[in-house]
Design goal:
Chains A, B: It comes from Mucilaginibacter pineti. 2 copies of one chain form a homodimer. Helices cover 29% and strands 16% of the residues of chain A. By secondary structure, the first copy, chain A, is an alpha/beta fold.
């Protein structure tokens, strides 16, 4: 690794750039008249709080074409990632391979909402074996073999984890990575 | 990086696992009655040896849905990659993002011909900023910021490059990486 290059950041998509949980809430409201409450999700995966008769319904929904295409952008993500992109070498890294139907949707979503991110800096993978300096992710499993700076982006499922440097929103990312 | 884990290898797809050049040759024969000779490609990109009136025809073909779906597998690639997979942590890493329409084809092709490679170990990217120990690739641009062992897989376009450790085929990869 050259010491003169810009620091590299890998930024996750789901629940970091894209509001996947909002989509789940809307989907269960519309298709099952079932209200999922954010308050019930504290420290839990969505599958853990779904009514028993719906507990295996989540994965097929995620596999549907289009699921990832219309997700809302997380508040302030566009502005902060744009500013990070000026200062750092920013990569968007999503474990998209788990859902074969998600790749084209995710690509189109990124091109729409983050058009300044070049195709060269988009990574769809499984294990995030990335040679970067900073990783922003809501899943601690992605930090396991990573030796750089780990920023755990708050999502309900990780609310009870307290052994990582945490960022609760994009303003907090900006405060940590853009202030100096 | 843990010192106890298996060594990680990143293996490229086009012209390493998949015979993209064979597809180009067939395509120009069928659609343009034009014969592309491997002998003319020594040290050159295909675009450099196409007749002038066809020189801008290549990119649209690569962008066609299906282009990457029926590529032939390179000789011995399946057997050797299977054996590597037993000894190493094998990742398939393709700069697929350059061609938005290639992602699903490449995914399906890998699932068909290399079904033992889990989705967790497939990476579609642009720049190959990977935390691996060994990289097998036909493009030296992918070696630029990589500090591990680089194996340049012979393809006509790289024939004149001589400052990298070279493997001419999958049997030579086996001899280097499976003999000890």
């Amino acid at each position: 690794m050259s010491t003169k290059r810009k620091l590299r950041i890998a930024i996750d998509m789901d629940e970091v750039l894209a509001d996947t949980i909002d989509k789940f809430i809307e989907l269960y409201k519309q298709r099952h008249q079932t209200e999922i409450l954010l308050a019930d999700m504290h420290g839990k995966e969505i599958t853990e709080i779904l009514p028993p008769h719906l507990s295996s319904s989540l994965r097929p929904y995620i596999n549907e074409k289009g699921f990832f295409r219309d997700l809302k952008v997380m508040p302030d993500a566009q502005e902060v990632v744009k500013a990070l992109h000026e200062k750092y070498d920013v990569y968007i890294a999503s474990a998209a391979m788990e859902f074969a139907n998600s790749l084209e949707d995710k690509q189109a979503w990124l091109n729409e909402h983050f058009p300044f991110i070049s195709w060269t800096n988009i990574i769809f993978c499984g294990h995030k074996i990335l040679d970067v300096d900073i990783m922003i992710d809501d899943r601690t499993k992605n930090f396991v073999t990573f030796n750089g700076r780990k920023l755990l982006f708050t999502s309900p499922h990780n609310a009870l984890i307290n052994n990582f440097e945490r960022v609760n929103n994009w303003q907090e990312v900006a405060a940590k990575l853009l202030s100096t």
